[in-house]
């Protein structure tokens, strides 16, 4: 079992920045990939970014590439999502997720990001 807790969301003006954190506890050996997802009101949850826990290989959605950066602190069991040049369309609840073998079995409770125009 892995427990995930997101933090760092808030209200920011367009063009601003936020850094989200995803703190993990429990069985870190079950963390192969850690991903960030988001869900806007009335929309389906979508992939944002991911990082492999051991190798640090990253992947981004086209909509955030060049603006968002994912990183990890392995000793601290924390994954970060640095979000720059935020746009109103980035407004959503952001979730982190992980699991064994590349699955996303464990999810956090989410943190709200609101970008005003």
Structural key phrases:
mainly beta; 117 residues; 11 strands; 0% helix
List the helices and strands and how they pair.
Blueprint (H helix, E strand, L loop, with lengths): L1 E6 L2 E4 L4 E9 L6 E7 L6 E7 L5 E3 L7 E6 L4 E6 L8 E8 L6 E2 L3 E6 L1
Parallel strand pairs: 2-11
Antiparallel strand pairs: 1-3, 3-8, 4-5, 4-9, 5-6, 7-8, 9-10, 9-11
Quick synopsis:
With 117 residues, the chain is mainly beta.
How would you characterize the overall build of this protein?
This protein has 117 residues and is mostly beta strands. It is 0% helix and 55% strand. The chain contains no helices and eleven strands. Strands 2, 4, 5, 6, 9, 10 and 11 form a seven-stranded mixed beta sheet that branches. The protein has a four-stranded antiparallel beta sheet with strand order 1-3-8-7, with no helix packed on it. Strand 9 (92-99) and strand 10 form a beta hairpin. The mean pLDDT is 95.
Average pLDDT score: 95
Note the gap between the termini: 40 Å
Shape: globular
Round the Cα radius of gyration to an integer and report it: 13 Å
Number of strands: 11
Number of helices: 0
Provide the low-confidence segments as ranges: none
Proportion of beta-strand residues: over 45%
Largest sheet: 7 strands, mixed
Order of helices and strands: EEEEEEEEEEE
Give the % helix: under 10%
Helix and strand composition category: mainly beta
């Amino acid at each position: 079992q892995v427990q995930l807790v997101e933090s760092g969301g808030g209200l920011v003006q367009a063009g601003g920045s936020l850094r989200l954190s995803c703190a993990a506890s429990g069985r870190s050996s079950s963390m192969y990939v850690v991903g960030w997802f988001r869900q806007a009101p009335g929309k389906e949850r979508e992939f944002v970014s991911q990082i492999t826990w051991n190798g640090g290989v990253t992947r981004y959605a086209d909509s955030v590439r060049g603006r968002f950066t994912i990183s990890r602190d392995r000793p601290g069991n924390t994954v970060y999502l640095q979000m720059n040049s935020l746009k109103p369309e980035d407004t959503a609840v952001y979730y982190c997720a992980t699991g064994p073998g590349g699955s996303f079995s464990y999810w956090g409770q989410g943190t709200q990001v609101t970008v005003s125009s």
